[in-house]
Amino acid sequence: MKRRAKYSLMGKYCTLVFASLLILLPVLWMISTSFKSTPEVMNGKVTWIPQNFTAEAYVRIFQDYPFADYYKSSILITSVTVAFAIVFAVLAGYGITRFRFRGHGAFLTFLLMTQMFPSIMLLIPFYKLMKTVGLNDTYTGMILVYVSHTIPFCTWMMKGYMESIPTSLDESAMIDGCGRISTMLRIICPLALPGIAATAIYAMIQSWNEFMFASILINRETLKTLPVGIGQLNGYYRIQYNDLMAACFTASLPILIIYVFMQKYFIAGLTAGAVKE
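^ that's the sequence the OP posted. Answer follows.
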């Protein structure tokens, strides 16, 4: 039995190592290519370690391309989208789990149905709507589009987490004189911080990486986001691979750092409410 358990453990570790390599190899290749010189990238030889280690690609993406504007646009749009998504998701999650109102089930069904339609199906309606109200090619229009996409799933995440918080805490707080808003802000929200953090990470990843709507709804170069800017590096006749990999690495680094430090909250928020006791 001990030998069988030992072999089983070794098999699990081997599987995890193999899966990790499949995930990390493209990332390592991206980092390696970003530190290569242009002649080395274009010679066609496969080398994991750069022969002439240089950071010229990182300098070039900010000097030759407006990546500073792309970063500013992505940070602004993502920050505002996350803030709005968190506020509405917390309010909706609290209301769904604490109140039983007419149309409660229909509202939950509606939230699920919004996730069933492909995003490209909404592209033309969003474009026509934004153009009609004069919000096309603006930060406000992009934020409204992103908020409308992130709120439904963020609400489901908050609903699952708030269901794990017993309603007896609300009743105790109200007996002590707290109103509904005060109870939510002082009692429920502090306990729901892991779920709020997980929801914020999800909204951040969705907004930071979104490409399709940003490429259609924004035309001004200074307002474009990072995914659109990276896509533009894919030229018609030539692709500067070291510049492209440097841009991809710098764009993914902020989200990677945030996720590494907050992954426990993300996992807690996704699994909350999965088991009922």
